């Protein structure tokens, strides 16, 4: 049967499953695995006990696994909650299909829905069946490492980070245990082991005169050597990949920046996938977001600042630990010092189907980003990126500073910083002269850089005769850009953005190309960005305003459907950007000129409180629904109910024990002894307060004995000790004597308050707050009410007033009330 080997195989499989932990958002999957693996091993053990063949033994393990899955996931459709039926099998198949769809929908770590838990339990259980078959039944423990290794291949293929060294070490340790146990059993099959003395002396052969020293190594030394070799092998397998940068993305011991240095950020060409996104036939959703901006701006991924004569790229980023995003604000946007700005909050949810998005799409200029994971910011361009994480399936919040310049602000001019001019106005010398001449011709007569930029934009969108065409090939060489400007004038956003940025640099205006997404379309209060909204546009630098977006790509039906020209570039008269005369006013495009699905400038209002970006709530946020207010009030009432009941009961008791005195004329009467009702009420209140604070109360003690015990146990101060003594004495006199103690009216009530405060000061804080918020005496009140109801029902039942069905109901209710009262009494006593 090899029971010990079976147990070792179970432990090795469970240890190997530790590598699956990063794939899920919680660790609840392990409990399903913890039941599936022993069940599968028990099925194989039973088949070996019955001396079946290896194939039938594996079938027995699968059958036991099926019984377990049926009992856990389909017991409602099974026979006796465990025996599979056609209905339970269909339920398992449906649940597995749902889990498979969820796996393909989400990015790791995936939420642990019911179907995914089923798939994990079934998968690891299948690995347990194979390990049991190979290592235990066929005695091929080394081959059993293959199914164990399969569990590591899943996170290694899905996650860029691979498997942590802790998970690998746990799995390797389990595999070594499996090998060791198998070797021990194989050696033990030859008979009882004979161990040599630890001194190293060998047993003398027959006929020998003296033993030969040092002839054989002790068995204990061999075992110790084996353990050392195994530990060294595991250590090398774990440490070597960590130490070699080419085998581990985080460097030595998972550090992002060894020694606090910098790392080069390398990403694929951002423009390579632009046309593929624009021409995807499914037009899938990339992300959704909600924003406080009535007219959202573009979501930027990349800022391409270098033109090499053929294409726009960006210089490799040098990432340092100082670039990590934390709670502090991001670096200030360059140059945005004079124009008016406003803060915009955007909550973005990226779809899980999006892959390898290592740059976050954010509105420019981001001032604060709240996102989980290791994300960093490039101080100059404010691109937000990660060295190891992906935006797939993530939700994050961005606070952006959006500039609101006017034509007058951008026409003022001013000196440009030297570092901006030197870097963002450079272009290769091999740019054809015809392109330089064309830039001068289009902007002839413009009196400022802003007017030059506006005329360039108008030339591309209106007067230049350009056509938006997704069938045009992406530019690969400088000649392709020249053909776009001079010959065919057909292309999509990449050609328009690249051409305007180049011509702006020729005119001495700092420029770069940005890539990301247009605002998308608004659907029920949230904005949906699809693959067709992928876009490229130029950003130009102006003194006091910083980097400002322009839109040379045609928009609307004949262009990029959701592209929106910025307001500060709208036509203001015969000459765009002319600021002479009266102050410039920018007109908003009419509804007919606005492209279909573009953001409307007359939105219903800015949302100050945003919903979750996943769109789970679609109603307007201008007010809190009455249902939520009612639910909140109901919750507060439920929480306050025990305290309110306790206060009301206390007031009712004292009102009955000490009715208000009747008004009298003449001298004030002398104090009289408290009535028996007041003494009993005071003692009952002391008992209730003691039980509420978790203090023991013995019903067989006299009042004075109880007072003495509580005083000594709690070490009550002198005022509380005296007050408790007076209450106990009044209770005993009310029980056994006709005369009473002469105390002023209300004195016992004041003594009860003193004792209650002393109880609260003597117990821990948790007990004190429980006595205030959830007093157990409220349960005693419910018990008394149940008993009163039962007595009333018992009084009415035999009188003939409740005939037939009502009498039966009364008897049942009476019995139920008695049982509830008994359980309440037992719980309250404890």
Structure report:
By secondary structure, the protein is of the alpha+beta class. The chain has four domains: 3-189, no CATH class; 274-569, no CATH class; 673-775, no CATH class; 781-829. The protein is 46% helix and 10% strand. It is built from 23 helices and 19 strands. The strands form six sheets. A six-stranded antiparallel sheet has the order 9-12-7-2-17-16, with no helix packed on it. A five-stranded antiparallel sheet has the order 8-3-15-18-19. It has a two-stranded antiparallel ribbon with strand order 1-6. Strand 13 (467-468), helix 14 and strand 14 (490-491) form a beta-alpha-beta unit. Helix 16 (626-657) crosses helix 22 (777-796) and helix 19 (718-736) packs across helix 20. The longest helix is centred in the C-terminal third of the chain and has 32 residues, at 626-657.
């Amino acid at each position: 049967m090899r029971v010990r080997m079976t147990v070792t195989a179970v432990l090795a499989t469970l240890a190997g499953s530790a590598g699956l932990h990063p794939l899920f958002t919680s660790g609840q999957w392990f409990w399903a695995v913890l039941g599936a693996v022993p069940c599968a091993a028990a099925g194989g053990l039973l088949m070996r006990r019955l001396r079946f063949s290896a194939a039938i033994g594996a079938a027995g393990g699968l059958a036991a696994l099926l019984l377990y899955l049926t009992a856990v996931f389909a017991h409602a459709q099974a026979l006796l909650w465990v025996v599979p039926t056609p209905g339970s099998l269909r339920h398992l198949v449906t649940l597995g299909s749902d889990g498979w769809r969820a796996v393909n929908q989400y990015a790791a770590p995936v939420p642990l829905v019911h179907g995914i838990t089923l798939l994990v339990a079934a998968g690891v259980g299948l690995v347990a069946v194979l390990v049991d078959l190979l290592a235990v039944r066929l005695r091929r423990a080394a081959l059993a490492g293959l199914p164990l290794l399969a569990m590591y291949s899943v996170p290694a293929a899905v996650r860029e980070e691979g498997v942590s060294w802790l998970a690998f070490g746990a799995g390797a340790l389990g595999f070594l245990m499996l090998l060791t146990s198998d070797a021990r059993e194989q050696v033990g099959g030859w008979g009882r082991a004979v161990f040599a003395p630890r001194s190293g002396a060998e047993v003398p052969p027959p006929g020998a005169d003296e033993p030969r020293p040092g002839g054989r190594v002790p068995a204990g030394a061999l075992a110790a050597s084996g353990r050392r070799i195994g530990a060294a092998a595991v250590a090398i397998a774990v440490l070597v990949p960590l130490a070699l940068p080419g085998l581990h993305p985080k460097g030595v011991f998972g550090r992002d920046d060894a020694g606090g240095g910098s790392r080069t950020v390398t990403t694929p060409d951002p423009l390579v996938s632009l046309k593929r996104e624009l021409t995807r036939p499914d037009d899938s959703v990339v992300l959704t977001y909600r924003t406080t901006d009535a007219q959202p701006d573009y979501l930027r991924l990349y800022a391409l600042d270098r033109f090499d004569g053929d294409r726009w790229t960006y210089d490799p980023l040098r990432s340092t630990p100082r670039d990590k995003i934390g709670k502090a604000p991001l670096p200030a946007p360059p140059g945005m010092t004079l124009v008016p700005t406003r803060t915009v909050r955007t909550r973005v949810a990226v779809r899980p189907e999006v892959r390898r998005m290592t740059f976050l799409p954010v509105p420019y200029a981001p001032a604060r980003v709240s996102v989980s994971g290791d994300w960093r910011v490039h101080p100059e361009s404010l691109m937000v990126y990660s060295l190891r994480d992906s935006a797939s399936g993530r939700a994050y919040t961005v606070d952006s500073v959006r500039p609101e310049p006017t034509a007058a602000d951008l026409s003022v001019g001013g000196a440009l910083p030297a570092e901006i001019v030197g870097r963002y106005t450079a272009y290769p010398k091999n740019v054809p002269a015809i392109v330089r001449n064309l830039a001068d011709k289009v902007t002839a007569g413009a009196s400022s850089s802003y007017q030059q930029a506006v005329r360039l934009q108008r030339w591309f969108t209106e007067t230049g005769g350009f056509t938006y065409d997704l069938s045009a090939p992406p530019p690969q060489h400088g000649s392709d850009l020249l053909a776009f400007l001079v010959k065919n004038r057909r292309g999509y956003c990449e050609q328009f953005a690249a051409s305007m940025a180049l011509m702006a640099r020729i005119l001495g205006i700092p420029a770069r190309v940005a890539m990301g997404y247009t605002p998308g379309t608004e659907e029920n209060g949230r904005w949906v960005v699809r693959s067709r909204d992928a876009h490229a546009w130029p950003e130009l630098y102006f003194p006091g305003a910083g980097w400002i977006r322009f839109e040379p790509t045609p928009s609307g039906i004949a262009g990029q459907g959701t592209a929106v020209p910025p307001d500060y570039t709208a036509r203001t008269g015969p000459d765009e950007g002319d600021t002479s005369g009266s102050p410039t006013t920018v007109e908003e495009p009419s509804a007919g000129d606005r492209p279909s699905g573009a953001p409307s400038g007359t939105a219903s209002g800015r949302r100050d409180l945003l919903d979750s970006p996943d769109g789970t709530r679609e109603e307007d946020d201008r007010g809190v629904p009455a249902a939520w207010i009612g639910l909140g009030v109901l919750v507060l009432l439920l929480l306050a109910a025990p305290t309110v009941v306790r206060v009301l009961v206390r007031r009712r008791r004292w009102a009955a024990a000490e009715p208000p005195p009747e008004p009298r004329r003449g001298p004030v009467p002398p104090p009289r002894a408290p009535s028996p009702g007041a003494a009993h009420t005071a003692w009952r209140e002391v008992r209730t307060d003691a039980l509420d604070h978790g203090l023991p109360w013995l019903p067989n003690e006299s009042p004075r004995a109880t007072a003495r015990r509580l005083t000594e146990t709690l070490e009550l101060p002198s005022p509380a000790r005296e007050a408790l003594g007076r209450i106990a004495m009044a209770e005993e006199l009310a029980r056994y004597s006709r005369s009473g103690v002469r105390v002023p009216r209300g004195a016992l009530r004041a003594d009860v308050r003193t004792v209650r405060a002393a109880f609260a000061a003597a117990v821990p804080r948790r007990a004190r707050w429980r006595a205030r918020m959830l007093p157990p005496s409220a349960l005693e009140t419910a018990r008394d009410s149940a008993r009163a109801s039962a007595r009333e029902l018992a009084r009415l039942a035999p009188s003939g007033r409740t005939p037939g069905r009502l009498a039966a109901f009364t008897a049942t209710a009476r019995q139920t009330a008695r049982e509830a009262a008994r359980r309440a009494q037992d719980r309250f006593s404890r």
